[in-house]
Amino acid sequence: xxxxxxxxxxxxxxxxxxxxxxxxxxxxxxxNQDTTPYYINVPKFFPAIPNINLINLTKAKVELGKKLxxxxxxxxxQQQSCASCHVQENSFSHPSxxxxxxxxxxxxxxxxxxxxxxxxxxxxxxxxxxDFFKTNPDNIKNEEYKIxxxxxxxxDEITQEKIAECLMQFISTLIAKxxxxxxxxxxxxxxxxxxxxxxxxxxxxxxxxxxxxxxxLFTDNSFRxxxxxxxxxxxxxxxxxxxxxxxxxxFKVPTLINIALTPPYMHDGRFITLDQVIEFYNNGVKxxxxxxxxxxxxxxxxxxxQLTEEEKSDLKAFLLTLTDTSFVQNPNFK
Length: 334
Fold this sequence. Notes:
A two-stranded antiparallel sheet has the order 1-2. It has a two-stranded antiparallel ribbon with strand order 3-4. By secondary structure, the protein is mainly alpha-helical. The longest helix has 17 residues, at 2-18.
């Protein structure tokens, strides 16, 4: 009788152990979820992360998200990855197309030039996976990925939703925080006279840049018509999403962090250099009914900003202090 109970106990133990395993390619592996937290270290002067983007990051999901970011099999034709259009050396933008850079996106709630995505970074990644890439999870259902999904989620099931979550977690870590200007704010360096003059132009009515490109992230996450054209026919910006005539010609305000690394500029990539951008703001703004009031105040449509050549050079010098070279060289993002 004792032998019978002993055998039953052994069978019970074996069955319990199998409950913790996942069947992968005709053999079993232990599928233990790794919930080790991933902590984002940001400067104290950075704003709070929007509640809509708060999520418990884990090292396993971040690492899986990084691998998926460079995985071409996520695209419907299996020829493109996220990194195809968002190159690290270009601050996760692209030198020949006007893709918005993947930088500090955890602080954003609105995405794409026309604001098609308005519900946080996870929603943006769901759009990328389901609508843009049209990802078929079967394309990555191999042993390697099943093991990684086991580690990240405690199960080897691979779905679009889990892929989007991992991409969201990796992109949440793409934070630039080591610019010269940030070091200046921390009292670690001083600005040159030209850079400091440029800062004054940027943050005063002289240049009026700071209203849209608010510090310290250098974007207010809004949509504005900055006067690129007097009429909008082919690409009408936010209006194409809302249908509100007051949104015609409004496009997302991009961050200026790493701006020197992310040409071309504007939603249609019309400007190639920072000098062209500065000259546009100085003397190229065009009127349309939805033009942002900041662009037309103080009779600027007629007179422009009236920056001298030296002042334009100083403004550019300040913009160059917003470059974080360690961000584009960070091996953790490769």
